[in-house]
Amino acid sequence: MKGLEIIINEQGIPLNETIDVGHKIACELINKDEKVIKYGVIIGSAMRLIMPGEHVHLSNLQSDYIDSHTRTGVISQSKILGNQT
Amino acid sequence: MNAYLRADGRKGIRNITLVCYLVECAHHVARRVVDKCNDDSVHLIGFSGCYPNDYALAQLSQLIQHPNVGAVVLVSLGCEGFNREALIEVAIKAKRPIETIVIQQSGGTLLATSLGIKAVNKVQAATPIIKVDLPVSELVVGTICGGSDGTSGISANPAVGICFDLLLKENATCIFEETGELIGCEQIMAERAVTEVLGKEIERAVHKAENYYRIMGYGSFAPGNAEGGLTTQEEKSMGAYSKSGNSPISGLIKPGDIPPTSGLYLMDVVPDGEPLFGFPNISDNAEIVEMIASGAHIILFTTGRGSVVGSAISPVIKVCANPETYRNMSGDMDVNAGKILEESISIATVGDEIYQQVIDVKNGKQTKSEQLGHQEFILTYKQFEPTGPGCLPTRYKAS
């Protein structure tokens, strides 16, 4: 829920947006091009600086292997093509 | 004593009569035959292409002698390229009653349909019913995820992994698949292989998948995956990978290969050679069909976004990862793994529940998709080279 403060690694982090079930937020600051870790493994690279508590998704994380597609666009090479959300 | 002993010695958990069309031109007649039989155990399968394809022949050859299948009716237009004589030989060798309707030799749609219905009755009457016990050690279970979201990898998929470990402890055979959905997991998978050579083969299969999908321009990543919180192929892969549990990987099979021993097998579903026929698996049911062709009696299907599918031939148990989806679509779901997220119920508890569902379905309990009449089936063009000896260390150790 937006405005809620959650505790990660004993630190309070305020949420700036409502996060849907199954979506993910950054536990700590992630620099541009830094590898993003989930399940203890790399799931891609940061496309830009990501703040703690920020929603990590198509606007700031890209695959190191292959493009991700939405119904209206493609996420590739740090560019967002098409009118995706 | 709920299993069916076939004349070739295999044991099935259902007694299905297949009506199989051999080209799209024969699909309508075959569907009419199935509809008019009005019998839930008569299932429709087939191949739409007119050009022959070794892979399609191999898949249908395995499917018509699947242990869940008692008898077969082929429906041919008459001029298609499919080698129906080869299929008939397979059925005879596997001692499955088989009849063939050739529409061009039967006077067209109406007469072929009525001959087809008679043929179904005839092969059903010729199917011996011998009930036996089927111990878990003789059971083959496949798993797939479809409509994954960010909950899949933390609830339903690891719970299926627990169920797989329980089944494997009792010497069952388990299959997980879609190397294209395991991109990024190749090294950790290779470490679980029973031999180093098999580990190398697993890495090679995933790299083949990565290359193939790159040429196609799409990963195995649907828009709904992103709406459900998954961002990259490798994130989806890690979630999918957890379905495989923690047991050693005994072999790498291709669609239609029957696992030579019990154990955990990875199925390589990505065609060999240059991409000739498009995407490896155009929808979830394509992979389900391939696992059934490799002998799967039951399919464990995990979903986050909410799939409704079942399958022809083998029952599909649907495990719902997302509690919101479960509330929305509970009529289609056999197991609510979403309670792991909302009710602090452990993954192990849900793993036990899935295991119990497998046992119940093995013993005859209908799954939700069976009750609802789901019998999806799809088979497309592909090409494969024979499976190499490094992929099946147990077979070569045994011989």
Order of neighbouring strands in the sheet with most strands of chain B: 10-11-9-8-12-13-14
Would you report the number of β strands of chain A?
A: 10
- Seen as an oligomer or otherwise, the chain set is heterodimer
In the predicted model, the low-confidence regions of chain A spanning at least 5 consecutive residues are 77-85
Question: If you average the pLDDT of chain A, what whole number results?
Answer: 82
Largest interface: A-B, 25 and 37 residues
Description:
- The complex is a heterodimer of chains A (85) and B (399).
- Chain A is built from no helices and ten strands.
- Chain A has strands at 5-8, 11-14, 24-25, 35-38, 41-46, 55-56, 61-62, 68-69, 73-76, 79-82.
- In chain A, the strands form four sheets. A three-stranded antiparallel beta sheet of chain A has the order 4-5-7, with no helix packed on it. In chain A, strands 8-9-10 form a three-stranded antiparallel beta sheet, with no helix packed on it.
- Chain A is globular.
- Chain A starts with a strand and ends with a strand.
- The mean pLDDT of chain B is 95.
- By secondary structure, chain B is of the alpha/beta class.
- In chain B, the strands form three sheets. Chain B has a seven-stranded parallel beta sheet with strand order 10-11-9-8-12-13-14, sandwiched between helices. Chain B has a four-stranded parallel beta sheet with strand order 4-3-5-6, with helices on both faces. Chain B has a three-stranded antiparallel beta sheet with strand order 2-1-7, with no helix packed on it.
- In chain B, strand 5, helix 3 (84-93) and strand 6 (98-102) form a beta-alpha-beta unit.
- Chain B is 38% helix and 16% strand.
- At the A-B interface, strand 5, strand 7 and strand 8 of A face helix 7, helix 8 and helix 9 of B.
Question: What structural keywords apply?
Answer:
heterodimer, A: 85 residues, mainly beta, 3-stranded antiparallel β-sheet, 10 strands, disordered C terminus, B: 399 residues, alpha/beta, 7-stranded parallel β-sheet, 4-stranded parallel β-sheet, 15 helices, 14 strands
